[in-house]
Every structure is written in structure tokens, then in C-alpha cells.
Amino acid sequence: MTKEQSTDAGGIRVRGLSKQYGRVKALDNVDLDVRAGDVFALLGPNGAGKTTLLHILCTILRPDRADEVTVAGHDAIRHSLRAREAIGVVFQEPSLDDRLTLRENLEFHGMVYEVPRSLRRRRMDELLELVDLVERRDDLVRKLSSGMKRRLEIARALLHDPRILFLDEPTVGLDAQSRERIWRYLEELRASRDLTIVVTTHYIDEVKGCDQVCIIDHGRILAEGTPDDLRGRFGTETVRVTPTDIAAAEAIRETYPTATSGRGDTLLIPITDAAMKAEFLRRCGIHVRDLAFETPSLESVFLSLTGHDIRDSEADARDVTLAFGRQGGELTR
Amino acid sequence: MTYIGATPVRRRIPVVRYMPGIGAIWLREVKRALRDRGQLIGGFSRPLLWVLIMGIGLNPYFRGEVYGEVRFVVPYTYVQFIFPAIIMLNIMYTSVQSAVSMIWDREFGFLREVLVSPLPRWAVLLGKILGGATIATGHGCLVILLARFANVPLSPGDVVVGIAFMFLAAFGLTALGIVIANRVRTFQGFGVFANAVILPLYFTSSSVFPLDPALTRAQTAVLYPEWLVLLVRANPLTYAVDSLRGIFIDFNQFDPSLGPLVAFCMAGGFFLVALWDFRKP
Lengths: 333, 281
What we know:
The complex is a heterodimer of chains A (about 325) and B (about 280). With about 325 residues, chain A is an alpha/beta fold. Chain A has helices spanning about 1-5, 50-55, 80-85, 100-110, 115-130, 145-155, 175-190, 225-235, 245-255, 275-285, 300-305, 315-325, and strands at about 10-20, 25-35, 40-45, 70, 75, 85-90, 165-170, 195-200, 210-215, 220-225, 235-245, 260, 265-270, 290-295. In chain A, helix 7 (about 175-190) links the parallel strand 7 and strand 8. Chain A starts with a helix and ends in a 7-residue tail after the last helix. A two-stranded antiparallel ribbon of chain B has the order 1-2. In chain B, a hairpin with a 2-residue loop joins strand 1 (about 65) and strand 2. Chain B has one domain (about 15-280). The interface of A and B includes residues 59, 91, 96, 99 and 156 of A.
């Protein structure tokens, strides 16, 4: 019964999946179920194994060991070509040909995926409209901004009408406005067609609207459920404090060994009950410059599951470069 | 937004079935090449230099030279003699350079788009090589435009057969370029390596000097050192250049059936090696 549900045309079912790079376990005995029609988020810091998992699901990477990898009703390892017909992929790095125009890029994709000409033309117009790029369709791709490129890639991935759309960190390196726009398109897509969306991200605020969230770290799946469900099961109220100085921070850590460091020089302390809150203020009030009580949030879920704040994880080189560029870094202009 | 129904059921025979995909890859290669001005200028200026300067410059020294007992019997001027070889040179440069697009795709992510598509690897590779071979044949045809200046009279039939053979040779050389590109994955490395392959292959293909068929082996040894003769005879390109000479100026230094055979083996062989490399993740 459950098997039928998860292996139907739009779902994913993974059992006992492992992948190793040298001695590093990128994925360690992963089980995963994605229901058809869901927006499914894989949440984890950089290097958690999200991209490895996604590449295996997209059939471009072979796992070392797997009992089952079924994607859109096809065995992704033995019948990878058939699985590929049913999926659309937006990779983390852009994969457009920037010497061709927008239309030529879409045309190429349609031919490769065997979409008949008339259908191809109709879908191209429709999808360019969806991502607001109709006016730019005869421009070379190299003239687009990175947000526009990402939108074009989403349009391209949908041209052959896939059952599952994979997006690997679709919003990395984009400004807030473009990020918001991309999520709006994904919402629209979900409302208008029979599509399963699997998205990886390390931005917690982005997964709040997803149907299912799967938290992954060090190649293991730590928890899976709806955002509310996860908050209820693993969330704790926390207090986020900025200590007055290093000595104060030391004092707080001594009193509350459960404290962990958050972003910047803040400390995060889980609050177990109301009495603890009052006691904290009484004992540590003088050491604190700024504080905020945070109700159970996905951040705290992540914190309690992995033992660290998601933002702590080192930004990858690309992020650093992009951030540098936004600040007006000399080498990027 | 209206929802447009699923893609219809597909044809079954692989080669027919993947035709649009192979065509898409071919078309992309050709479009990119046509938009690359630098490559076009190179494709035109290179043969111009060889015909106008090298060819015409050496023309007076080519005939009637006597080395001891031996006398050349090549009944052609030097420009006529090297004209087919210049076609091959242009094809070589373009074929091997077109493999750069492979490195380009790997570097800039486009290869992913193709690898995650339902096209099998062999179809991707075939599309790429056909594209590269088409561009190279086009550059070969640029040289044919210079035939008048080289005093090479061409009949339409010669041109058709010539272009067919050029395409076959270009296919093999593009596949060779891709084999190199799979081993040297940076642009700089490829440039060095490609030049290290192209020029020696070209110069030892009996392109700029003849190995006269009328001479005995002993007589040849008077003219050229043994190692050079061996190199020329071992170079597969020698036979391809020889075939082009046969087609365009009716002059063969070797058995005329060797050329097509060698070109065919090169095309098949390098394609298989490239496919083998490509299968590995």
C-alpha cells in the first residue's frame, strides 16, 4: 500500500543508499520517500550531502550501494534514461549555453527531450511568460542577470513536462527580490500542474512553505516531516543573547553548559520551561547586552538536531565571492 | 496558466528516435562556430598564407632539381602539390580546435544539461563529432575557394567526392580532438597539446615534400633519412592527404585504396576511444 503510493509516477523512494568519496561518507544508508505532488525540501548546511543525493536521484551519479532508488516510477540506476525523461533538473551552477539566445536554449532542450515542434513552440511561449522573460527571448543568454538565468533554467527544466522538478540551491547567490520571485514561480507551478518539486537549500526561511522538510547533515537524514510537525517534535524555545564581553560569555557558558554559539557573537540557550526563563534573567541578566526569546522555529529544530546553527557552517567559496562582489569587491568588476 | 498535456508516445528505433537530439547538438556546434569570428578569420587566413606565400614562394624551387642520380618526377607545381595538404591542414586545425567546445561545456556547466537528458552518451558524442566535422569540412571548403590561385582545375564531381572524403577525415580528427580534450581538461593545456599534435602530424604527412613513388626505397634513402621516411609512412594522415591529392590533382604516391581505408579506421577507432572515455563518470 505505502509502496504503491511512493513509487507512483510522481514520487521518489530510496532505500539504503550510500555513497563515499575516499574515506568521507557523503551519504550513509539513506532512506527517503517523496510523495507525488509535494514540495519537498532537503535542508542542510553546505557539505551535508544534499547535492550528492540530488545527483544520484537525477541519475548522473552512481551510488556505491543502494537497495532501491525509484524516481517517478523508474529504477534510477538500471533504467536511468527512462527516469531522466520524467524529471527536470536545475543545477546549482548555471548550465545554459550563454552564446545562444534564450529561445535557442529552450529549442535545444525541447529537441533533446523529443518534444514535437508545435508543442515545443507553445510551451516555450507559455514558460517564458511564466518566468517573465518574454521580451528577452531573442537576447543572448550572456546578457542576462544571474536571477534571470536561474528563471530561464527553471523554464527550460519544465519544457518537456516532467513529473518531478529538482532544484539544487536555486536561490544561492541571488538578491532577496530574485529569491522571493523564484519561490513565487514554484508556488504557481505547484498550483497549476501535477508536479512534484524537490529542492535543496541551506536557507531555513525558505522551507517554511514546503509540504515536507527533510533535515540532512553529515550524510544522514536526521528528521523528516511537515514544518509544523518538526517544530512540534524537535523545536525548543531558545534565548538568543549577545553577551557584553568575552568574560560575560564565559560566565554564561559556565552557568549553562547547553549554550551554543550562534551567528555573530551571539549565544543560543535552549529554554526547557517557564521557570528557567525567569532564572536565566536573574542569574545572567547583567552579562547581557541584547537578548531575544525565540519561539520554536525551524532554526531551533535544526540546532537541536545537529548541535549547530545552520549559518555557522562555512560559506562556500562561491558565496564568499558573490558576497565580496556585492560589497563592491575590486576583482569582480 | 493552461496546462498542456503530456508528450506523445515515442518512436522505437534508436537511431531514428534520437535523431532530433543528435540534430540539436549538431546545430548548436555549428551555430556557435558561425558566431565565433576569430575561428572564421583563422580558417580563411591560414590557407591564404600557405597558398600565397609558402606555395607561390617555393614554386620555382620545386621542379627539375637534381640530387646526384635522382630527379623528381612529380608532374605538378609546388602550389598544386601542397594545395590538397592545405585543405587537410585547415580541417585538422578546425577539427581538433572544435574539441575545445568539449572543455568549454565541462567548464561552464552546459555538459550537465546534456548528461542529465534522456539522450544516451553515444548520441551526445555523435552529435558533437558530426558538428565539429561539419565545421571542419566547411573550413576545408574555404580552401577550395582558393583553387583558382593555385592553378588547380576542379570539376564538380571532384568537389563532391572531395567534400565527402574531407568529411570522413574531419570526423576522425574531431574524434581525436575529443580524445585529447578528455585527457587534458584545461584550455591552456589543450592549446599546447593540440599544437604538439597538429603540426608534427601535418609535417610528417608528406604534405610539404613528396615521397616520390617512382623512386625505389634505396633512392628515397638518398634523399631523406630513414627515420623521416618511416615517420611519414607510419603517419595515418599521410594516406588521407594522398587521397585528397588523388581526388584533386590525380596524383597518388601510395595505393589509392589506402586513403579511404585509413580514414575510415581513424573515424571508427577514435570514436570508440572517445566513447569509452565518455562512459566513465
